[in-house]
Write a structure and sequence with these properties.
By secondary structure, the protein is of the alpha+beta class. Helix content is about 30%, strand content about 25%.
Length: about 300
């Protein structure tokens, strides 16, 4: 319990293990940071959530169809989407204790803001290592979050592939095939549920910041000029869904992104937040992505 008498994240994680919901992956070998195994109750809980989402988003609608795309796709998919060149986080190391941190999180935790420069980022004055207290941090450098591997017996650049960092791109590259075979017309959506992988610099917050995780993704395609209308519609639909599965409305809220916080492809974005006993955390993001992804894959 914390000073307010509310359970901490650590206490909830411990309870989840004791009750068989979730275990540290490879625990008998010391565990591996950022990876989790779901136990007997945990896998049933996940299955219930997946089925509830799929039933409401796909089966109960006549304007959404499903897809199950491969985890490994052609590397040019990630070049076109911008992930190869731009899916990066600023990373710093402590020269004293050798620990590694995500630079923007490190600054935020100390009430400071990471400074942008012409060539990247710079640490503001006064930032110290949270592990040892030393002020001996390296300058931030870019770290690509995609896991790399190789397809086939030869390990060279021509065989390099990536574990997908998001499920959305599989939907975009199969847009044409779905249109041709499902006989759908705009506006319509494509949904899928599957694993995604991000090589986080410093996994934390239990399952909220993991290196392997599952996403439930819906991409809804609309006519130009109707983006704002449909975005508002889906924000309300998603809020109603969380209430329908039992989350109290008093703990749900929306975080509306400011223009300077939006991704370069988005005209609007809202995060659905939930007030847990240990603090507010994002449940999902709802973005108006425009035609950036489809256009990039057509070029």
């Amino acid at each position: 319990m914390n000073n307010d008498g509310k359970p901490t994240l650590e206490a909830i994680a411990s309870l989840c293990k004791r009750r068989g919901f979730i275990f540290q992956s490879s625990e008998i070998y010391g565990g591996i940071n950022g990876f989790w195994d779901y136990g007997p109750l945990g896998c049933e809980l996940k299955r219930n959530i997946r089925e509830a989402w799929w039933r409401d988003v796909v089966r109960n609608r006549d304007d959404v169809v499903g897809l199950d795309a491969a985890i490994i796709m052609h590397p040019r998919v990630w070049e076109a989407s911008g992930h190869v060149g731009g899916f990066q986080d600023p990373m710093v190391d402590c020269r004293a204790c050798k620990k590694r941190f995500k630079a923007d999180n490190l600054c935020e935790e100390q009430g400071l803001k990471l400074a942008k420069t012409e060539t990247g980022f710079a640490l503001p004055a006064g930032v110290v290592c949270p592990a040892c207290g030393a002020a001996e941090l390296t300058e931030p450098r870019a770290f690509n979050l995609m896991f790399e591997s190789y397809a086939g017996p030869v390990q060279d650049e021509s065989a390099k592939v990536y574990l997908r960092p998001e499920t959305a791109q599989g939907i975009f590259v199969q847009f044409g095939n779905v249109m041709d075979t499902a006989r759908v017309k705009v506006p319509f959506g494509i949904a899928q549920i599957g694993k995604a992988f991000r090589n986080e610099i410093n996994p934390r917050n239990f399952t909220f910041r993991s290196r392997e995780f599952e996403q439930m993704e819906l991409e809804y395609f609309v006519r130009p000029g109707t983006d704002a209308q449909w975005h508002a519609y889906w924000v309300q639909e998603r809020m109603k869904w969380y209430e329908a599965i039992g989350l109290p409305a008093s703990r749900l809220r929306q975080y509306v992104y400011r223009p300077d916080e939006l991704a370069h492809y988005a005209s609007a974005c809202v995060d659905v937040m939930y007030d847990f006993p240990f603090g507010s955390q994002e449940l999902e993001g709802i973005a108006a992505r425009g035609d950036f992804d489809l256009r990039r894959h057509q070029e």
